[in-house]
Automatic annotation (TrEMBL):
Pfam families: GST_C_7, GST_N_2
InterPro entries for the chain: Glutathione-S-Trfase_C_sf, Glutathione_S-Trfase_N, GST_UstS-like_C, Thioredoxin-like_sf
GO process terms (BP): glutathione metabolic process; L-phenylalanine catabolic process
The keyword Oxidoreductase belongs to this UniProt entry's keyword annotation: no
Protein name: Glutathione S-transferase
Length: 230
């Protein structure tokens, strides 16, 4: 049975941009599961599966509906144990929790500032009207105040990747010899900005850039199938 993945997109449906939805898409592909991608707009999220969640991703797998990217990964691992593991064991699951916390607190905090205006500009008018007050409330700043921080966040972003950069000197993936869900967590963050923003945050020849390019090629080029922002 094909799994349905609900994911977020703006007016360009070829660029579903939510970092959390990309985690789930990569996790489903990692497991080798068939899935359909159903895009929804910001204001359509409350209608998904009868309002099961205020956010996406949400998946439907037969009679089961699961929300939240990490809970979905846990569900896939438990439900399909005979398929490639997303965690490689309990330790890998705990590691992924740490990676998610680091990504959310460090990378997402910067990317929310860097890409905020560009995300807004890629939404339909009715979604823009919701997006502005919701993000201002989340960030505790006006759009103009956030925009004033953008250049500084771009300039400082490479340094935020230092832990990943150093680690990649000794292993090709966060998961070790092969990618795990922890890789998809960080990939989702960088894929997000790749799809919505013209800011170029990764430098040629950097170990992080090489890792990201390998991620784009995983699972038949699933990540690369969505065109980068022009």
């Amino acid at each position: 049975m094909t799994i349905t993945l609900y994911e977020l997109a703006g007016t360009d449906l070829s660029r579903p941009f939510s970092p959390h939805c990309w985690k789930t898409a990569m996790a489903l592909a990692h497991k080798g599961l068939d899935f359909d991608r159903k895009t929804v707009s910001v204001t359509q999220v409350p209608q998904v599966e009868g309002g099961v969640s205020k956010t996406v991703p949400v998946i439907r797998d037969g009679s089961r509906v699961v929300a939240d990217s990490f809970l979905i990964a846990d569900y896939l691992e438990e439900t399909y144990p005979d398929r490639p593991s997303l965690f490689g064991g309990e330790g890998g699951q705990a590691m992924a929790r740490f990676v998610e916390s680091w990504s959310q607190s460090t990378l997402h905090a910067a990317l929310n500032v860097i890409a905020l205006q560009e995300i807004h500009d890629r939404l339909a008018p009715e979604d823009q009207a919701y997006f502005i007050p919701s993000r201002e409330a989340r960030l505790g700043k006006s759009f103009d105040e956030v925009a004033a921080l953008r250049d500084a966040e771009i300039a400082g972003f490479s340094a935020k990747l230092t832990p990943l950069r150093v680690m990649l000197k000794s292993q090709p993936w966060i998961g070790g010899s092969s990618p795990l869900f922890a890789d998809y967590i960080v990939f989702g963050a960088l894929q997000w900005v790749r799809l919505v923003s013209t800011a170029r945050l990764l430098e040629e020849g950097d170990a992080v850039t090489d890792w990201f390019e390998r991620c784009l090629d995983l699972h038949g080029g699933l990540g690369r199938s969505a065109p980068a922002a022009g």
